[in-house]
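sry for the spam today, last one i promise. struct tokens for design, 199 residues
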């Protein structure tokens, strides 16, 4: 219909929680949006370290971890859904002969213009032998919004949005990612009020 608002696509964007968001997991969270369409959205929280390390996780799945720089890295809380399932956010891997949208792993969501999110164990097997993506973040659980739910939350000023920055995800210390994400908008946390927003 002509009077419908144009749909927005926040794929490969950050959602930055406004001060009014009180939910324990989402308070002061930064969510990387892997997919956003009229059917809903799927994302991973990138700044909430869990209580196990990558070394612990690999021990649980009975794989060695031949990437010393990763062993002490925390496994993050990606969201409140399927918290027993692993989600690996990583740099895109390009192999000659592969078409756009294809991946070397069995189950990977290729985020247009952004990163890749793999749920199959083969990415962990690649890491265990010293290979795999150069930069990775492993999460347990994911976040999702049903049809129109994220748009409703945006209209109610629950989130600020900004195009995602992969360096912030992989290189900024977890405790600084919220403030760093706000910095992409030229904002600081103390300037925010619970009823201000930016969509």
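last one done:
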């Amino acid at each position: 219909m002509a009077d419908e608002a144009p749909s927005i696509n926040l794929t490969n964007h950050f959602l930055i929680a406004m001060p009014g968001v009180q939910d324990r997991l989402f308070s002061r969270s930064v969510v990387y949006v892997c997919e956003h369409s009229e059917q809903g959205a799927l994302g991973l929280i990138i700044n909430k370290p869990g209580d196990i390390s990558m070394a612990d996780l690999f021990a649980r799945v009975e794989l060695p971890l031949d990437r010393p720089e990763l062993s002490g890295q925390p496994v993050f809380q990606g969201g409140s859904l399927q918290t027993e399932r692993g989600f690996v956010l990583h740099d895109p891997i390009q192999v000659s002969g592969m078409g756009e949208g294809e991946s070397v792993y069995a189950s990977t969501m290729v985020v247009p213009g952004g990163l890749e999110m793999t749920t199959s164990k083969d990415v962990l097997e690649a890491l265990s032998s010293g290979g795999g993506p150069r930069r990775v973040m492993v999460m347990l659980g994911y976040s999702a919004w049903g049809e129109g739910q994220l748009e409703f939350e945006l209209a109610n000023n629950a989130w600020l949005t900004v195009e995602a920055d992969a360096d912030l995800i992989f290189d900024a210390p977890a405790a600084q990612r919220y403030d760093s994400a706000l910095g992409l908008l030229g904002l600081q946390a103390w300037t925010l009020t619970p009823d201000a927003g930016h969509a």
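The first strand starts at residue 13 and ends at 17. ok im logging off now
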